[in-house]
Each structure stands twice: as structure tokens, then as C-alpha cells.
Design a protein that fits this description.
single chain, alpha+beta, TIM Barrel, eight-stranded parallel sheet, six-stranded antiparallel sheet, 17 helices, about 20% helix
């Protein structure tokens, strides 16, 4: 059994639950205590109304979160989804159900640390394991009010199935989309059409030009021995198009226990590499390379980004001038970033933090608005360097969030039962679509990191859970109609795990987020390489929604432009106003082939109808909170 594609792009979708109803295909991946019922075209989410806390002291009520950075689903929609059911427009959906001992969402937000914080003393009393549901509703027709996304890209699937479908990615030379894993058995020339860069950790990439690769540099040589910066500099790949990031500070810190010297060593490597670029390739600026930084850089003072839970006055100040944009807001002060004061600006480009963290980050920090704010701030601060964001398609508790850290048991559908594996919480398609799309719109490169295990399309090639270490209790087997039990590989009644071609295994967790990131890159390609509608200007539009008008601020230039790769506009702080008031986002762009409009209303829910009218002549009807991109001729 495998994921089989046809010339038309349709495929069999292994390991998911599915039903056809009213002309639609409903597919979903649930967790242990979650399910979906489809009745006359309506979707009902079946999850426990409450759970006892980890230690059994309190009963915790459920809160339904959506797929834009864990946005709370509006109460009227949540009541339908959890009650009699709700008709959802075609597309992809993800729901996280968290259980917390709080009377309402406002109290949950106000007391998150006491209720969910690891080390708070209260998390075991006041929270319980979450449930998740990844769902798609498709009828074969493309989805979107503007540039429509092929329906099969939006189907809920365990695999990053963009690698098996007939949609290729072509981006401008200064834009990159990089991934790590690949689906085994697909011809490599086809795989290489799905991204601009693949992490150089597979032998089959030996024959691929270096400008199609990226690498996360570690301190080890080919024999697993730790090496010092001079050795790493001598033995690293030098190519203008080769994307270089690193985890050197963490490696040196763990192995030698000498920080902040560990941070200095990471910078020594990048400075030494740039010296080689100058000597061997004749480069005159880091912007001619794709040398970025160590992913601990922000931890040792080289960051620029801000969280949107900071005071609005501070957020506005961060966009007021180039000087302010180059500073970090720390304990009420504004020290200039070490990226400038310590000289890194002279020898490498800039990397934005791409890990989305956990519920403490997503619930509190602004989601779509935060993404745009920091891209504008960094563009204002560093207009003449390449900008990369590297991320992961899953959340990390980071020792903070008890609920995220506990994970969830995802159900993998097999022939006569389900394998349940404890997994980290993966980000939904629509969260990662926005991360990728806006990074490519306003930055240069977007790279997704993952483990280097090739993927099989056969769910019988499953592996046991290794989330947080391979403990027996983290994998269960549930025969159809019977209780779940701890999985035992040697037990005759339990399925045996297998291996596919190239030692591949079926994904250990659903990888919706990676497909979402591809969709975001594909969507950006439609207004850049397919039809250039972005190279001349990127600015906030005057627009109206359902008759309500919005007039963004002009910034110092007075033309409402964002600080982007095209131009910089000190004083443009409309994104702060939009965040404060939860306004829709509407961006007008223009290039040599015409104009485009980018629209998203994160706060409107899943079915909110919006009639939009934009200053450049676009009139359109939009449903829900999804990212929409329109051609304007």
C-alpha cells in the first residue's frame, strides 16, 4: 500500500481516515481520543468535553484552537463544530484541543504560566494532554478566492505529498526554498523540482551542484570527532549559492561547557568562511553569498526581532528609524544588536528565528502580525544583506510549556487497527503557508529543517515513537473495535514494522506543515517567477471590507510601502495598528507583468464572509481567515 500518483495528480492517501459525503472527500488524521463525524456535509469534532489533570486533582475544560498560530476558534463556530456539526468550505483545517483548568480563554491567557508552565508548580494540577485533528474537505476543484491552490495539495496526509504530485517550484534567483527529507522511490530529478535547496546529508546529492544545497554545520568531522573552528573553515563548502547555517554554539557549549566562548567560536567560523569567499571567489559583500548564521545567534545578542506582546509604543519605536530597527528591545532599553556592534554585518547575512516554539509563543505573540512586523523591522535594519528564516514544522516545549511538551498520540490507520504514536505537535498547513509565503515576499530564503530519514509511502513501514526517547508506553496498537494496548513488536497479533527503499520509514508524525510551506512558496512563485507582480513595489493598500474602510499610515515616504527587499520606509507602523485592532491585512504589489493583492483576515473565523474593495480596482468576495493572493490587471 503506498501513495500512488497519476498524471492528473490524484493519489491514494495511506494511513488517513476518510469518508465521501455530499460530493466531497473528507480525510483526517486524529489523535487518541479525537474523531470526526460527517453528517450530511457537516463536520462534527468528537473530543472529550473535559479531562482530569495530569495528577487527577482538577477537571480541565476544553478550548478549541485553529490553524493560524493556535488562534482560538470563535465561540459560535466552536459550538457548531463541537455540537451538531458545521459545513466547512473546501480546504485544509487543523484543530488543537487543549485542556486547562480555566473558566474561559481570557483567564487561560492571563494565567498561562501557573496553569501550564513547566516548573510553575501548577501545571500538573491544571492541564492535561491535548488532542489534535488534521482535516481536509475537497471535491477536486482548486481552492481560493484569488490564485487557486490545487485541491490535492490541500488534502490531509501523513506525507509531505507535494513531493509526489505534479507541481514544481521555480523561484527567482534571489529566493530559495529548502527542505531536508525526501520521499524514497521518487526519481531524484523529480524531487529536485520541488525545492531550490536540499540539505547536503545524502550521498545522492554528491552529483548535484552546490548552489542547490544547504547545510547546517556542526562541529564534527566525518568520523564523529569534534573539530575546532579553523578545521571547520578549511573543510566547508564554498559556493555563492550554498546556504550555510550552523548549530556550532550549541555543540561547543554542550561538549566543552565554555560559554560565551562557544558563541565566539561560532562567529569565528562564519568570519573565516567569508574570508575564503573573498580569497577564492572574489566576493565583495556578504550579500553575494548565502552565508547566514548560527541558530543560537539571537541568544547571544545578535537578534533584531521583537514579540508583539511588548508595549505598543516600543513596537512602534522599533520601526521608527533605521537606528531603532538595528536595536534590540531588552528590559526597557534599546542596545544596538551585536550583529552590528560585534562586526558580523561585515562577514555574513542575517537569519530570522523560524522556530515557532509552543503555546506560550503562539497564543500570546501575534502570529501573522508578528511575522510581518519582524520582516519589516529586519528589512529596515539590514536592507543590503540576504535574509533567511529557518524553521521546523513542529513545536518545541523548550522546558516552558507542559502541554506542548507532553505531545499527543496520533492515529495511523492500518488494515485492521490503528498504531498510536506519541508525537511532537506539528504545525498546520495554513500556519506554515504564511511563514513561507511572507518570508519569500519580504525576505530571501526559507529553509525547513528535519531529521534525515528518507520517507516511505507505505504505512506498514512504520516505526515506533521516538519522541523524547524510545519508551515502550509511547507506542500503542488498537485493533478495530478493541481497547488500545502497549505495542510489542514481537507479539504475533501486533503488526511488524518494516523498512522501505533506501531504508525509508513512514513518517513518525504527520508532516502537514512541510506541505503548507511548499504551498506558500508555490503561491509566491505565481506572483514572482510565473508572472512578476512584486519587483517594483510592496505597500499597504487603502481598502474596505464589508463597507468598513481602512487607511494605512504612509510612513516617512508617505506612500504606505512596507520595508521590504524593494525599499525601506522608516516610520511605517501600520502593522502595529493592525495587530492592536485585529484589522485585516491587505498588501498591494506591482511588477513588470502587472499588479497583485495579498489579503488575509486572521480574526474572522473559518466561515466569515467578506466583500473586499481595494484601491487598485480589485473587488472580491472572500470566505474565512485564509491567505488569499489575487492578480490585478
Amino acid at each position: 500500500m503506498g501513495l500512488i500518483t497519476s498524471a492528473a495528480g490524484q493519489f491514494q492517501n495511506p494511513g488517513v481516515f476518510s469518508v465521501r459525503d455530499n460530493g466531497y472527500l473528507f480525510e483526517w488524521i486524529p489523535s487518541e481520543n479525537a474523531d470526526v463525524q460527517v453528517l450530511d456535509g457537516k463536520v462534527k469534532l468528537v473530543v472529550p468535553e473535559s479531562k482530569m489533570s495530569w495528577n487527577g486533582k482538577n477537571r480541565c475544560r476544553r478550548f478549541l484552537l485553529g490553524d493560524l498560530y493556535d488562534n482560538p476558534v470563535p465561540e459560535p463556530e466552536a459550538a457548531q463544530l463541537l455540537g451538531s456539526g458545521m459545513k466547512l468550505p473546501p480546504g485544509n483545517y487543523a484543530f488543537r484541543v487543549i485542556y486547562v483548568n480555566a473558566p474561559d480563554f481570557a483567564q487561560l491567557k492571563a494565567n498561562m504560566w501557573q496553569l501550564m508552565g513547566q516548573g510553575s508548580g501548577g501545571a500538573d494540577d491544571n492541564s492535561a494532554m491535548m488532542e489534535t485533528i488534521y482535516l481536509s474537505v475537497t471535491d477536486g476543484k482548486p481552492v481560493g478566492a484569488g490564485i487557486a491552490v490545487p485541491a490535492d495539495l490541500l488534502r490531509a496526509s501523513w506525507l509531505p505529498h507535494y513531493q509526489l504530485l505534479p507541481y514544481d517550484l521555480k523561484l527567482p534567483a534571489d529566493k530559495g526554498f529548502g527542505v531536508t527529507r525526501y520521499v524514497a522511490g521518487v526519481p531524484k530529478d523529480r524531487i529536485l523540482k520541488k525545492a531550490t535547496h536540499f540539505q547536503y546529508i545524502y550521498n545522492w546529492l554528491d552529483r548535484v551542484p552546490h548552489n542547490r544545497k544547504w547545510k547546517n554545520i556542526q562541529v564534527y568531522d566525518g568520523k564523529g570527532q569534534m573539530q575546532q573552528p579553523d578545521w571547520i573553515v578549511r573543510n566547508s563548502i564554498i559556493d555563492k549559492g550554498f546556504i550555510t547555517i550552523a548549530e556550532l554554539a550549541e555543540n561547543y557549549g554542550n561538549l566543552e561547557g565554555d560559554c560565551p566562548r562557544c558563541y565566539q567560536k561560532a562567529e569565528e567560523v562564519f568570519k573565516g568562511l567569508y574570508g575564503r569567499y573573498q580569497r577564492e571567489l572574489g566576493v565583495r559583500s556578504p550579500a553575494e553569498t548565502r552565508l547566514y548564521d548560527d541558530y543560537f545567534g539571537a541568544l547571544y545578542g545578535y537578534g533584531l526581532e521583537m514579540n508583539l506582546n511588548m508595549p505598543p509604543a516600543a513596537l512602534r519605536r522599533g520601526l521608527r528609524s533605521v537606528e531603532n530597527a538595528q536595536a534590540r528591545y531588552t528590559d526597557g532599553g534599546w542596545p544596538r544588536s551585536g550583529y552590528f556592534t560585534n562586526g558580523a554585518y561585515a562577514y555574513r547575512n542575517f537569519r530570522l528565528a523560524g522556530y515557532l516554539g509552543n503555546l506560550f509563543n503562539t497564543i500570546n505573540e501575534g502570529g501573522v502580525y508578528k511575522n510581518l512586523y519582524n520582516l519589516e523591522k529586519v528589512n529596515l535594519a539590514v536592507p543590503d544583506r540576504m535574509l533567511l528564516k529557518n524553521g521546523w514544522a513542529a513545536g518545541e516545549a523548550l522546558g516552558i510549556d507542559r502541554v506542548t511538551g507532553a505531545g499527543t498520540f496520533q492515529r495511523l490507520r492500518l488494515g485492521n487497527g490503528d498504531i498510536l504514536r506519541l508525537t511532537v505537535n506539528d504545525w498546520p498547513i495554513h500556519t506554515m503557508m504564511g511563514e513561507s509565503f511572507f518570508q519569500l515576499l519580504l525576505g530571501n530564503d526559507y529553509v525547513l529543517w528535519n531529521s534525515n530519514i528518507p520517507m516511505s509511502t507505505n504505512p506498514n513501514d512504520f516505526s515506533v515513537s521516538w519522541y523524547g526517547g524510545k519508551d515502550d508506553w509511547k507506542t500503542k496498537w488498537q485493533p478495530r473495535g478493541k481497547p488500545a494496548e502497549i505495542y510489542q513488536e514481537g507479539k504475533p497479533s501486533h503488526p511488524k514494522p518494516g523498512k522501505g527503499p533506501e531504508g525509508s520509514v513512514f513518517p513518525e508524525m504527520s508532516l502537514q506543515g512541510e506541505t503548507g510551506a511548499f504551498v506558500g512558496a508555490w503561491l509566491y512563485s505565481q506572483i514572482s517567477s510565473v508572472s512578476d507582480r512584486v519587483s517594483k513595489s510592496v505597500r499597504y493598500c487603502n481598502f474596505s471590507v464589508n463597507g468598513k474602510s481602512y487607511r494605512p499610515s504612509g510612513g516617512s515616504k508617505g506612500d504606505r510601502s512596507l520595508s521590504s527587499r524593494v525599499s525601506q520606509n522608516p516610520g511605517q507602523d501600520w502593522i502595529v495598528t493592525a495587530f492592536e485592532n485585529q484589522y485585516p491585512i491587505c498588501i498591494c504589489t506591482e511588477g513588470k507583468n502587472g499588479k497583485a493583492v495579498i489579503y488575509q483576515n486572521p480574526g474572522t473565523g473559518l466561515t466569515g464572509a467578506q466583500e473586499i474593495s481595494v484601491e487598485n480596482g480589485l473587488k472580491a468576495q472572500v470566505t474565512g481567515n485564509r491567505l488569499q493572493v489575487f492578480y490585478v490587471d
